[in-house]
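task queued by scheduler; priority normal; single chain, no ligands, no partner chains; default sampling; output format set to structure tokens
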Amino acid sequence: VQLQASGGGLVQSGGSLRLSCLASGYTFSSYIMGWFRQAPGKEREFVAAITTTGAKTYYGSSVSGRFTISRDNAKNTVALQMNSLKPDDTAVYYCAAMMRGDVSHPREYADWGQGTQVTVSS
């Protein structure tokens, strides 16, 4: 299983970014996909998750209403659209895959991408 995240960068407060995660090496449509983030000195935080078909989505309280997760099973990709970004959103963002379990707990995810840095300036 390989997950490759991309799309991070530097953006001003209030701006938008779109992250993408390309999966390979497994049946993408069989896995729940999630996004997490980790800022320096902080624990890894749940951002969003999406079920295998995309029918259900879940969001962390700090991003609900500003971020949107989506997936394209034909292209083996999961995306995270981030709007109204704030300096507190600055972190390394990771995509991850799981078969089943609590979508908000990082230990439930078996496979992780390498992360992409998002920096929001004030």
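post-processing summary
- Residues 55 and 70 are 10 Å apart (CA to CA).
- The first strand starts at residue 2 and ends at 6.
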